[in-house]
Amino acid sequence: MYIGGQWRPAASGTTREILDPADATVLAVVSEGGVEDTDAAVEAARRAFDSGTWPNTPTAERAALLRRTADLLQRDREEIALIESRDTGKTLEEGRVDVDDVTAAFRYFADLVTNASGGRVVDAGSPDVHSVVVHEPVGVCALITPWNYPLLQASWKIAPALAAGNTFVVKPSEITPLSTVHLVRLLAEAGLPEGVANLVTGAGDPVGARMSSHPAVDLVSFTGGLASGTKVAAAAAPTVKKVALELGGKNPNVVFADACATEERFDTAVDQALNAAFIHSGQVCSAGGRLILEESVHDRFVTELVRRARRIRLGRGTEPGVECGPLASQQQLDKTEDYVASALAEGAVVRCGGKRPEPSEVRPATGYFYEPTVLDHCRRDMRVVREETFGPILTVETFRTEDEAVALANDTEYGLAGAVFSADTARARRVAARLRHGTVWINDFHPYLPQAEWGGFGTSGVGRELGPSGLDEYRETKHVYENLRPAPVRWFAG
Question: From CA 390, how far away is CA 401, in angstroms rounded?
């Protein structure tokens, strides 16, 4: 753990083994933090903030540190990609893409804060009054990140928090902490003052719970599951902290028949459906796990989809040619098997997958592998359709009319992301406007831009990451009213 500028073991001396999901062997051993460690980290962040060490650092210097960190990320690109691949199970190429996206996030927020205005002047109606609205750092930020994209999600919180002048304590998932440890090392190497960045490794209870409730924490940013997110919000409520929550999704991918009118369009739509559902074995909050097809193209589309899904090369993420890695943990493997079993019990039909693969040279028998699975004849009342599966499961539903397609896509308690595929530009935009989801792609799936904002409707959370609002989440708004010619008010006779 990294607290107050020093690497240290847990106060209790407890450690946790980090397993390689490809074969369940021990990849690393990290300290298992507790309440005492969390308190020490928060206190270090509080001291660093209250001393003014970082918040009073000129904006240009803060931005320069972010850019140095970005350069160091690219220097260590291959090493970090390997760490991310072995820790999470994703392919090495996905790990490289993650490092590049993290680098872009640090550079984006460095540029954004550099170009930020000094304040918005408010006309007070008098030449003797100067009134301005300015932004200031929130203070101590508790940053809690998920296990599926540990480095990327950490960067979406750490980069804007530092750019705005905050100090922080970060808690990565206890399953996949290794790339976050490396990132904190790079921040220290880049010259971040002691106490500004603090890292506590350990479980959500007690570490995340204590971070969320600690009276010296000013903001909590959490990415993870709905159940844990509601606990974070409840823990933060008594001290009325700022809270940002990104809680996942059950994301529709709506494909109209005209999107398949030519061979090229058909090929693209099928390819994107595979990408939407099976990248990183479906362990993506924005995964397009609900394929909603116009009925007239169902048979042809699903037949080709299944043919390609069966050809996905499944194995250890570091092996050449592998396209899909293992699930991140035994818990996720068990959960995936349970969802498929419940779908079959409710009447779904397995078109491919639905089981663990045979072991091979690139798929150790002890790894957490599960075949890419397509479930046909699904209904929106099925558990597998309504709940976030976070595994390589694609459900197929059909529609006949545009209104029915929109109704199906919006029939979810989540509202994170979705997509519309259509050759009719007017219809695609019309449907996209009707979807109650924070991000809607048209004729594409999964692209993210640092400049765009990422949020959601419904139980997908509150707050925004990336874009200008991603920085504003880590700033407070202050109105400074200056009377240049003060005089007695004489409201009272005395």
Answer: 29
pLDDT digits (tens, 9 = 90+) for 338-361: 999 999 999 999 999 999 999 999
How far apart (Å, rounded) are the C-alpha atoms in residues 90 and 87? 8
237: tokens are 């409520």
* Residue 331: other Cβ atoms inside 10 A: 11
Which alpha helices (H) appear in 288-349, and where do they start and end? 298-309, 330-345
Give phi and psi for 397, each to the nearest 5: -125, 160
Catalytic residue among 32, 84, 260, 285: 285
CA–CA distances in Å: residue 245 to residues 142, 288, 314: 12, 20, 32
Whole-model pTM above 0.70? yes
CA torsion 185-49-164-208 (nearest 10°) is 60
Q: Which amino acid is at 216?
A: A
Closest by CA to 160, choosing from 224, 110, 115, is 110
DSSP state of 14: -
Annotated active-site residue in 84, 246, 304, 465: 246
Active site residue 174: no
Active site residue 141: no
How do residues 112-131 score in pLDDT, each as one tens digit? 999 887 788 999 999 999 99
How many CB atoms lie under 10 A from the CB of residue 66?
27
Burial group, residue 492, by CB count within 10 angstroms (0-12, 13-18, 19+): exposed
